[in-house]
Write a structure and sequence with these properties.
It is built from nine helices and ten strands. By secondary structure, the chain is an alpha+beta fold. The strands form three sheets. A five-stranded antiparallel β-sheet has the order 1-2-3-5-4, with helices on both faces. Strands 6-8-9 form a three-stranded antiparallel β-sheet. β8 and β9 form a beta hairpin. α4 crosses α8. The protein is globular, with a radius of gyration of 19 Å. The N and C termini lie far apart (about 45 Å).
Length: about 290
């Protein structure tokens, strides 16, 4: 399915067909979202409908695994509470989930350094050994040597940070790989996927890329999301990180920053899929990733 936009009338009809007890709640459009279009339903719920080719599979992962994991996570998550079935009105499954109150970090960045302990607590709770049937991802949580990232460095090719960024990445690739069993990962912790209230990390959303693998992929969020000066506080609260994991995570943070800058650059030019707010978030994240620990 190509990316499309659905109208409220369709959502309301689906609710009346399948969840009539919720059909008369207030329904409001929510801006943002990439693979799924979202509406706020009443005060406490959200409707999520897939709108890209890959979205149904991602939504299925969230529907299958997040209800189980959410019970042990210390931050609010968009846990599915109802599943919409395929029908003549809409051919894919869809979700009614918990609403997570606040603003995404690409609009309201985390500014409080105490968020380091909050993020560490969330990742300690999440990073348990995953079961054998947990989903895997071809580009997340895998050995870094298997990633092809050279093109992403083009976005800063003429910038003074180009060589330092590549050096941080090369150090990450050279670091020893994760030696233990795969653990549960969020897999996509970037500014649009965490929720902020009053400068504090207050929720984590969009678990469609949840998978099993190397926890360094989530630790990259220390540089991508937290304010300057938070790394040491995070590491004090997350004792599982050894030197090799820190090197891998920092390299991934540098690369994630380039992706944010690239998507922001596309948004500034009105290109499809671009998001202007991601550029400043990416530039700030790159500065943090290149700063001494």
């Amino acid at each position: 399915m190509d990316e499309v936009k659905f109208e409220q009338d369709l959502v309301r009809a689906l609710l009346r067909d399948q969840h009539p007890d919720l059909a008369d709640l207030e329904l409001r459009d929510v801006s943002g979202g990439w693979d799924n279009q979202q509406w706020r339903l009443g005060h406490d719920l959200a409707v999520r409908m897939p709108r890209t080719e890959r979205a149904p599979a991602l939504l299925h992962i969230e529907q299958t695994w997040l209800p189980m994991l959410a019970e042990r996570l210390p931050l609010p998550t968009p846990t599915p509470v109802r599943i919409g079935k395929p029908s003549s009105r809409f051919e894919h499954t869809w979700t009614i989930a918990r609403w997570v109150e606040g603003e995404p970090a690409d609009h309201a960045p985390i500014t409080r350094i105490e968020a380091a302990e909050i993020l560490a607590g969330f990742l300690r709770a999440l990073h348990h050994q995953a079961p054998a049937d947990a989903p895997t991802n071809p580009s997340r949580g895998i050995p870094l040597a298997g990633l092809r990232v050279d093109d992403w460095f083009d976005v800063i090719a003429d910038h003074a940070d180009a060589d330092p960024a590549r050096e941080v990445w090369e150090e990450a690739v050279a670091a020893p790989a994760w030696p233990s069993a795969p653990v549960w990962l969020h897999g996509d912790l970037h500014p649009a996927n965490v929720i902020v209230r009053d400068g504090m990390l207050a929720g984590v959303i969009d678990f469609g890329d949840m998978c099993a693998g190397d926890p360094a992929v989530d630790l990259a969020a220390v540089w991508v999301l937290l304010p300057a000066g938070a790394v040491a506080r995070f590491l004090d609260a997350y004792p599982l990180a050894d030197e090799a994991m820190i090197r891998r995570a920092r390299g991934l943070a540098a690369v994630k920053s380039l992706i944010l800058i690239l998507i922001g650059w596309a948004g500034d030019r009105g290109a499809p899929g671009g998001k202007p707010t991601w550029g400043p978030a990416g530039r700030a994240a790159l500065d943090r990733a290149l700063a001494p620990i």
